[in-house]
Amino acid sequence: FDRLRYVEIKHGRICQLAFLGQIVTRAGLRLPGDISLDGTKFSDVGEGWAGSFQVPTDGALQILFFIGFLELFVMKDVTGENEFVGDFRNGFIDFGWDSFDEETKLKKRAVELN
């Protein structure tokens, strides 16, 4: 069950980031400068699924390698200090989590799942 919960939480977080990216690009916010050395600007790339095919090959490979790096080295419990499945703080980032009581922690974890 823990493996399924881990995958559910991770995919949920990825979907949240994808949705946020969609909203930001549809609002017209783009990074300044060029996305590749051939002069293609970030603003030249469309939005959504069609825009992902407009990214130059080198840029797409960089994205793929970055995601692989995150998958293999960052988005996992490397210290063994996790309190629950999906806790990737690794003793580094807290954001006040340790100051919450148990009831608040359970409520916040339930909000992420629902």
Structure, described:
- The model has no long low-confidence stretch (mean pLDDT 83).
- The protein has helices at 2-26, 48-52, 57-74, 102-113.
- It is mostly helical.
- The longest helix has 25 residues, at 2-26.
Q: Report the order of strands and helices.
A: HHHH
Helix content: 40-55%
Q: Could you give the count of β-strands?
A: 0
The biggest sheet amounts to: none
Structural class: mainly alpha
- Residue windows where pLDDT falls under 50 for at least 5 positions: none
Count helical runs: 4
- Characterize the overall form: elongated
Radius of gyration: 18 Å
Oligomer: single chain
Beta percentage is: under 5%
Alpha-carbon distance between the termini?
17 Å
Mean pLDDT: 83
List the main descriptive attributes of the protein structure presented here.
4 helices; 114 residues; mainly alpha
Show the helix and strand layout.
Blueprint (H helix, E strand, L loop, with lengths): L1 H25 L21 H5 L4 H18 L27 H12 L1
Question: What would a concise description of this structure say?
Answer:
This protein is mainly α and 114 residues long. It has four helices and no strands.
